[in-house]
Automatic annotation (TrEMBL):
Residues 22-155 form the Guanylate cyclase domain. GO terms for biological process: cyclic nucleotide biosynthetic process; intracellular signal transduction. It comes from the Bacteria. GO terms for molecular function: adenylate cyclase activity. It comes from Faecalitalea cylindroides. This is Adenylate cyclase.
């Protein structure tokens, strides 16, 4: 057992790691309507802008272990042995939430459709194994636990039915909230979150947190 799992080079088909994992999923809302637009070139520009910049935000972390695109969703999975790791990853969700304001301003300026997203983040101890066929070079890591599945599900909750875009599992929230309070002593960060309960997923929290300096720059016309 270990709190951190290594990079791909250390994985074999005969070993596995049981460790803390955090997953972030960023899912486009109402994507079927967007993808069904007859102007495919317009849709392609929107999707490229969303995916490229979201990946850029998510990939910049030494604990990153997997990143990719699943249909209309960008996801990243990290090893997260320390509470501070959870705070740094939560900060990424705040940046993505703010970036979407910038992206939609740019899309509107080019007569392209706005997009909405849901962002899900979840943490748990997972068994990570390598599965596939060694002799044909087809293999992938498999995450056996709750973090990846729940982050994916939570991303489908965000920005829907009146719920805020950011959704955090209780385990993620419990890990990063003290750091968020420390960084925002003049505010009351716990009041930024709404608590929810789902029979299958348990307690989770929603929020609509943005990075104020980034947002001010957007409101000022995104000038250098």
């Amino acid at each position: 057992m270990t709190n951190r799992f290594p990079n791909d080079d250390s994985f074999t088909f005969s070993n596995g790691y049981y460790c803390w994992v955090t997953a972030i999923f960023v899912d486009i809302r109402n994507s079927s309507a967007l993808f069904g637009d007859e102007d495919k070139e317009k849709v392609a520009k929107v999707i490229k802008s969303f995916t490229s910049e979201t990946i850029e935000i998510l990939r910049n972390n030494d604990n990153l272990r997997e990143i990719g695109i699943r249909g209309d969703c960008v996801y990243a999975i990290y090893t997260s042995p320390m509470k501070r790791d959870e705070y740094e990853l939560a900060e990424k969700t705040f940046y993505i939430n703010t970036f979407m304001k910038m992206l939609n301003e740019l899309l509107l300026g080019r007569n392209l459709p706005e997009i909405k997203i849901g962002i899900g983040m979840s943490t748990s101890k997972e068994l990570v194994i390598k599965a596939g066929r060694k002799d044909v070079g087809i293999n992938s890591k498999v995450w056996i636990g709750k973090a990846v599945a729940r982050a994916s599900k939570f991303s489908s909750f965000g920005n829907k039915n009146g719920i805020a875009p950011l959704i955090f599992s209780k385990s993620s929230y419990d890990q990063f909230i003290s750091f968020l309070e420390e960084k925002n002593r003049k505010s009351k960060p716990k009041e930024w979150f709404n608590k929810h309960y789902d029979e299958q997923l348990g307690t989770y929290y929603s929020a609509n947190i943005i990075k104020t300096e980034f947002n001010s720059w957007i409101l000022d016309g995104m000038k250098d």
